[in-house]
Amino acid sequence: MDEYFGNKTSAQAEAWFHSLLDTAVDGIIVTDATGRILAFNKACENLFGYSAAEILGKGIYHIMPRKEAASHGKHISRYLETGQKRIIGVGRELNARHRDGDEFPIELSIGEADTGSGRQFIGIIRDLRERKKTEARHRQLQGELEHLSRVSAMNELGSAIAHELNQPLTAIMLYLQVAVRQSGAADMDADILDTLSKATNEAERAGKILQSMRRFVEKGEMERRPVDIGEVIKEVIELMRHSLQEQNIRLKFVPPDAEARVDVDQVQIQQVLINLIRNAMAALSAAADGRIVIEVHKSDGCLEVSVEDNGPGIAEDQVPKLFQAFVSTSAGGMGLGLAISRSIARRHDGDLVLAGESAEGGARFVLRLPLIDEAGACSPAGAG
Q: Would you state the pLDDT for residue 233?
């Protein structure tokens, strides 16, 4: 070692060398040409869980992933025979193996030296676990930022669409009202008059939905009032009746034993229920005997409205991202229905959850809302 430590004695050079090894922040390993470990510093002890006394004299394969350990000897032999460098002198990222068997990422740089004892290889090892965690967190934050940007853009788009559609929709309502009056004066067929009246009602409802959507995306005040949830659900079923009949889906409503009143923006809660029914219908599109069951019951001051179907259910890999905006489980869907529906529920101090499979193996969603107690105050939502 005199070439590195000048005129120091061999003992002094050895002491300096070991001091250098043990004060290095990165791991340093020295092996011979067969892969036998000759030096193993303190940083390596911390990295791999072996003490130097345990590992010195053993093969380098003890700290290599099992897949790579089997071929390490061949790589060394090929290099010694051909002199072709593949990793020597070049830093690279790969995995190492801890004493307990866990693999972790490292950056490895390898050098070589010809000594009186033969050729030796010096490995400098840097633990990359924290850097990898930081990079993963950075990617996650980038993804969340992009997601929020898209949601923000959709909020602006939703508000603009609602504003632009409001004027032509108002005109449609006026024309329909005029048509109804003229039809009545002209003693037109009762069925046609009834159809025009229904169209007028639907146009008025569409206007309410647009106004509600604008308030929602602009984070404005909701128009909350006490309502009987049973009546709200009956209106929704009536609105969906034609679509259900076209798809030949049976819908069963199990009302609560007694009146259940909640303080909500009725239009928004109806929209949540319509979204849940439409999702169930989409899941039942290929079913020969499609069934949807809506049931209401009370639990710890919380009103629970369950909507379940006998469809194929939700794939396990879709469950964690089910309520994320722009993630759709159906072809052509925008992935906004459940995300917006949960937001509406939570703005009402409640929640919307996937409660697992229905009794018939399909999906079961539960809308939770706080009940109004006898004193008129709102009980805790109890939503998880």
A: 93
Residues 37 and 122 in one domain: yes
CA gap 292, 304 in Å, rounded: 16
User: Cβ(335)–Cβ(324) under 8 Å?
Assistant: yes
168 and 106: one domain? no
Q: What is the DSSP string of 175-236?
A: HHHHHHHHHHHTT--HHHHHHHHHHHHHHHHHHHHHHHHHHHHTT-----EEEEHHHHHHHH
What local confidence, expressed as pLDDT, does residue 380 receive? 39
Secondary structure element (H or E) that encloses residue 72, with its range: helix 66-82
The answer on 119 and 151 residing in a single domain is no
Instruction: Give me the pLDDT at residue 85, please.
Output: 60
Cβ neighbours of residue 124 closer than 8 Å, sequence gap 6 or more: 26, 27, 28, 108, 109, 110, 111
Q: Are residues 349 and 236 in the same domain?
A: yes
Q: What's at 339, amino acid-wise?
A: A
DSSP designation for 379: P
Instruction: Give the list of residues 6+ apart from residue 82 with CB closer than 8 angstroms, or none.
Output: none
Residues 65 and 153 in one domain: no
219: left (phi over 0), alpha (psi -120 to 50) or beta: left
Total domains, the chain: 3
Q: What is the pLDDT of residue 127?
A: 92
Cross-strand pairs, 293: 252, 308
- Are 293 and 308 within 8 A, CB to CB? yes
pLDDT, block means (10 residues), the chain with 384 residues: 53 72 87 89 93 92 80 64 62 89 90 81 91 82 60 59 72 80 72 79 75 59 84 88 88 88 88 90 86 90 91 83 63 60 87 83 91 50 38
Residue matched to tokens 């067969």: 34
Does 217 lie in the same domain as 87? no
Structural domain boundaries enclosing 8: 2-127
Strand partners, 304: 297, 368
